[in-house]
Structure formats: C-alpha cells, structure tokens
Fold this sequence. Notes:
Elements: H1 2-11, E1 15-23, E2 31-39, E3 45-48, E4 53-54, E5 77-78, E6 86-88, E7 90-93, E8 96-102, E9 106-114, E10 129-130, E11 148-152, H2 156-159, E12 182-189, E13 200-207, E14 221-225, H3 234-237, H4 241-250, E15 258-261, H5 276-279, H6 285-303, E16 313-318, H7 320-331, E17 338-342, H8 363-368, E18 376-384, H9 388-401, E19 405-414, H10 417-431
Amino acid sequence: MRSLLALLALLAPLALGAVTITRTSQPPTGYEVTITYQNASASNVTISSLPHLTDQYSTSVWAWSEFDLNEYKPGDFPSNPQAGTYYSMSQTSPGNFTWTRPFPGGTYQYSFLLNCANASLCNTTTGQEITDPTNPPFEVVSGSELVSTFQVPFDPEFQHYPDLPLNQDYALPYGNAASKGSISIGLYHSPGSISPSPDIHDYVIYLPPGYNTSNITAYPLLYLSHGGNGASADWQNQGYISNLMDRLIGTGALEPTVVVMPTWYGILPNTTNPQALEQRNYPDPQTIASLYSTYLFPHISTHYRVSNSSSRRAFAGLSQGSFVTYTFYTNYTSYFGYFGFLSGGPATNDENEAPPLTGYVNASMLAQNPDLGTRGLFLSYGQYDILFQDAKRFQEALDDLGIRYVSRFVPFGFHFWNTWQDAIWHLGRAALWKPLPFSGATGHGL
Ligand SMILES: *[C@@H]1O[C@H](CO)[C@@H](O)[C@H](O)[C@H]1NC(C)=O
Ligand SMILES: *[C@@H]1O[C@H](CO)[C@@H](O)[C@H](O)[C@H]1NC(C)=O
Ligand SMILES: *[C@@H]1O[C@H](CO)[C@@H](O)[C@H](O)[C@H]1NC(C)=O
Ligand SMILES: *[C@@H]1O[C@H](CO)[C@@H](O)[C@H](O)[C@H]1NC(C)=O
Ligand SMILES: *[C@@H]1O[C@H](CO)[C@@H](O)[C@H](O)[C@H]1NC(C)=O
Ligand SMILES: *[C@@H]1O[C@H](CO)[C@@H](O)[C@H](O)[C@H]1NC(C)=O
Ligand SMILES: *[C@@H]1O[C@H](CO)[C@@H](O)[C@H](O)[C@H]1NC(C)=O
Ligand SMILES: *[C@@H]1O[C@H](CO)[C@@H](O)[C@H](O)[C@H]1NC(C)=O
Ligand SMILES: *[C@@H]1O[C@H](CO)[C@@H](O)[C@H](O)[C@H]1NC(C)=O
Ligand SMILES: *[C@@H]1O[C@H](CO)[C@@H](O)[C@H](O)[C@H]1NC(C)=O
Ligand SMILES: *[C@@H]1O[C@H](CO)[C@@H](O)[C@H](O)[C@H]1NC(C)=O
C-alpha cells in the first residue's frame, strides 16, 4: 500500500504554484501580487474570477468600467467580479506560468482555466477549471469550493482616497496564536441530506479564542448563512470570517461569540433535477428554516457552550441567505434576538413595481406578531448591489412601521464578498448583543 502510494505520487504530474504578495512601496498601489502555477501538461493557463477595477464616476448596479489592475488610480475598487474577467498567464518555460499585477487592498478570489480555447466555455464540469493546488480552498466536500482566495493589505500612502473607506484590513489575520479562534467542520443528523453523506449534514463553526466548555458563562451564538450556489465553507474560504471575528473580539468591539455557518447545499435530494448536487440545491427558505430548526439548532445547543437565551442568539445571511434570515425573522421571530440582512430582504418585489409595497412586513403582521418590532435588526447593502432595491424597500417597510434597525450602506459595494466582509465588521461593532430595543443612538460613533 505504501509503495503504491509512493508510485502514484511519482506518476502524478508536478503541479506547483503560489501567490506572492510583495510590499513594493511604489506606485500605483504599494503592493504587487504574483501568481505562479506549474503543470507540465498545461499548454496555456487563464486566471478566472479576479476583477478589473472601476471607480465611482463610471459605475452603476448594471454597468462599470474595466480598468486593468495596471491602470489603478486612488479611489478605484474591484468591479463586479462575477462578470467573467480573465487574465492570461505568461509561460516562462514549458509548464511554468506566471502573472503579476499591482493590487489595491482587499480580498480576492481566483481559479485557473487550463488549456482553454474560450474562457466562457471552460468550467469544473468540462474539467478545465481548478483551484490553486498550492493555495487550496477551505471546504467540506472536495470540489465544492470553486475558488482560492488571498488578501492584499491597504497602503494608505498610495491608496488613500477621502471619498471612500477602502481599507479592508479588518479581514487580515489578527494578533498572535492566543488571539485566534478555531475554525472547524461539524456534522449532525439531518434526514434526507445527500451531502456529505446520507442523512448526515455539515456546518462550519468558529469558536472564539479561549473557548472553554467549563466556563460558567455561555457564549452568544451567531448563525451565519451563505448565499445562492453557496456552501458552509464559503464564509471562511471566500470571506475570511475567522480573521474578522478574531479582530472584532480581540479589539474588544464584540464579546467572544460562537459562529455557526450552516448550509442548504445538499440538505435534500432534488427529485425534479437529479443533477442538482452539482448545481447546488435550492430548497425554498421555509423548508430550509424548518430543517435547521428541527435538526441543527438542537444539535448546536447540546454540543457547544452556547446560550439558550434568544437575546444571545442571532441569525444573519447574505443574498439568498438573507431571504432565509427573513423567514426566521417572520416565522421564528422569538427564537432570535438579532437578525442580520446582508444584501437582501424577502426579495419579493421587482424593481419596477409601483408603491404600495407588498411582500414586506406590514401593520397587520406586526399587530399579530409584536416581536417583529423588538428584535435587533441590522441591514446592509452595497451601492452597486443587485439587491439594492430589495434591501432599500425592506428598510422603507420597517420605517413605515417605526421599527428601528442599524444599517450599513457600503459605498463601494457590489453584490460580493468585499461588501459582506464590511457588513460583518459593522454587524459586530454596531449591532450584535447591543442593548434592545435599538435606540436612535445605537451604533453612534462607530
Ligand atoms: C495539470 O493539467 C492537466 C490538464 O492538462 C489537468 O488535467 C491536471 O488536473 C493538472 N494537474 C494539477 C495537479 O493541477
Ligand atoms: C519551472 O521553473 C523551475 C525553475 O524556476 C524549474 O525548476 C522547473 O523545472 C520548471 N518547470 C517546468 C515544468 O519546466
Ligand atoms: C489554449 O489551449 C487550447 C487547448 O489546447 C487551445 O485550443 C487554445 O487555442 C489555446 N489558447 C491559446 C491562447 O493559446
Ligand atoms: C466564446 O463563447 C461564447 C459563449 O458561447 C460566445 O458567445 C463567444 O463568441 C465565444 N468567443 C469566441 C472568441 O469564440
Ligand atoms: C460548463 O460549460 C459547458 C460548455 O462548455 C456548459 O454546457 C455547461 O453548462 C457549463 N456548466 C456549468 C455548471 O456552468
Ligand atoms: C473562558 O475561559 C477562558 C480561559 O479561562 C477565557 O480566556 C475566556 O475569556 C472565557 N470566556 C468567557 C466567555 O468567559
Ligand atoms: C476553563 O475555565 C475554567 C473555569 O474558569 C478554568 O478553571 C480552566 O482552567 C479553563 N481551562 C482552560 C483550558 O483554559
Ligand atoms: C431542484 O432543481 C431545480 C432546477 O435546478 C430547482 O429549481 C429546484 O429549486 C430544486 N429543488 C430543490 C429542493 O433543491
Ligand atoms: C441549552 O439547552 C440544551 C438542551 O436543552 C442543554 O443541553 C444545554 O446545556 C443548555 N445550555 C446552557 C448553557 O444552559
Ligand atoms: C411562514 O410560514 C407559513 C406556513 O407555516 C408560510 O406559508 C409562510 O410563507 C412563511 N413565511 C415566510 C416569510 O417564509
Ligand atoms: C401583510 O402581509 C401579509 C403576509 O405577507 C399579507 O398576507 C397581507 O395581505 C399583508 N397586508 C397588507 C395590508 O398588505
């Protein structure tokens, strides 16, 4: 067995690579990123998912500039990275590929397209898209995370721009070993689950530094959902949630908090579309909420030293995870004290629908369920967010009812991870575990 493995290792094609982030202290950004990849059987390699840049003068929700990273000017920020941006790597010797650009600060995702004639036709299904083997994603099921990630620091000398808060260093690693919480994968029984194995489902959990089951005090608990086409590992792999939490806790902005990141990826078989494990299942939010509350929540409260008090419990989610959050807010209102809507609300209105608004919380819902008005609500969205309208209308519906919330409008924000990292930073600083009900001064000065 041992020699067979050794033989396989020898036969496996050599594939190495790396992301090198260099502080140049030179224009245009002060930092340079080099990505290398080695694979003797690749004839050409394209980097996918890394963005071009845009600026506030040429950007809307549906349109943006596409400046090459070489053209960076202060005030630029990543344009919609899901729009299909590709960079060809240079082949320096057979099988050796490299690519270098100046980069502004922030978190970036990327993948490699191998031997690809037309980038928009190459993907994991065709076997031509891979993550970086030397910078592998954090994931539960191999192949379920489609991108590798890196973060570039902010350089105030070259990137400072008074109109926009573009420093995203809050997602960089924080402190020493003692300041770091742990991130791990947990499993629980959830009937019908098809991933990672029959009737067994997964979550990712962040335990704060010093987590100690003997402590008398139970930790407050945040459930944090991924979005459409997502999975439990997304917040760690693409959003560096453990770095954000370490920093929020280490700087004293947030008390030590346990974060559970559940997933509806593979939580049920898809009878209408048997291929749906690959395409990511899409149970409706009511089904997701019901499965989580029946199987996941009891598992978490019995396996971790977390509070059973609703005032110490929150549910938040991004994009489609925000629709799930809305379901918990309206149908499981009193189980949680706090709700975080990151880029979205119930998503029931199309952009062109004329007032009056329907599909959002209204006076009769509030009369039947007064707790809707007593929760700690946090709403955030980006200026260039595809769910801008939905999030704004949800705010207007709350305004009409006189329900207070803390909001965070992200001025450089697309419907993407930089926006959601910013949202978590503000959720932790301005909303979580703050006295309820929120007052007009909640979050003031942060
Ligand atoms: C090397 O490239 C080939 C395509 O030519 C691909 O099938 C293989 O997965 C790559 N190997 C690694 C380890 O990236
Ligand atoms: C890539 O370059 C390195 C030296 O930088 C060399 O050792 C290696 O053999 C090259 N790989 C291939 C596949 O040519
Ligand atoms: C990359 O490789 C594919 C497959 O060999 C080929 O069809 C395509 O033309 C190549 N593209 C470039 C830019 O060389
Ligand atoms: C690449 O594929 C897309 C989608 O099929 C197509 O629209 C586009 O014309 C193709 N590009 C080239 C250069 O063939
Ligand atoms: C992958 O690309 C092929 C075309 O090359 C397309 O038919 C297929 O739908 C794509 N799959 C996914 C999951 O995007
Ligand atoms: C739990 O105990 C550890 C170690 O004694 C300590 O660092 C941590 O702050 C405590 N946490 C709470 C919530 O009391
Ligand atoms: C956990 O907390 C208890 C009670 O505060 C303390 O006695 C114990 O040393 C702590 N354990 C660790 C590993 O910090
Ligand atoms: C099954 O797949 C279809 C088509 O992809 C999708 O519309 C539906 O929501 C999925 N159902 C479940 C339960 O995931
Ligand atoms: C919360 O409730 C569960 C289930 O009843 C129980 O096992 C756990 O000890 C409780 N946790 C605390 C901190 O009281
Ligand atoms: C609340 O639950 C009811 C039935 O239990 C369902 O009809 C309704 O759609 C749910 N509301 C939301 C916002 O999911
Ligand atoms: C309030 O919302 C509920 C649930 O969506 C809906 O059934 C009801 O018609 C709405 N009431 C008004 C006055 O819009």
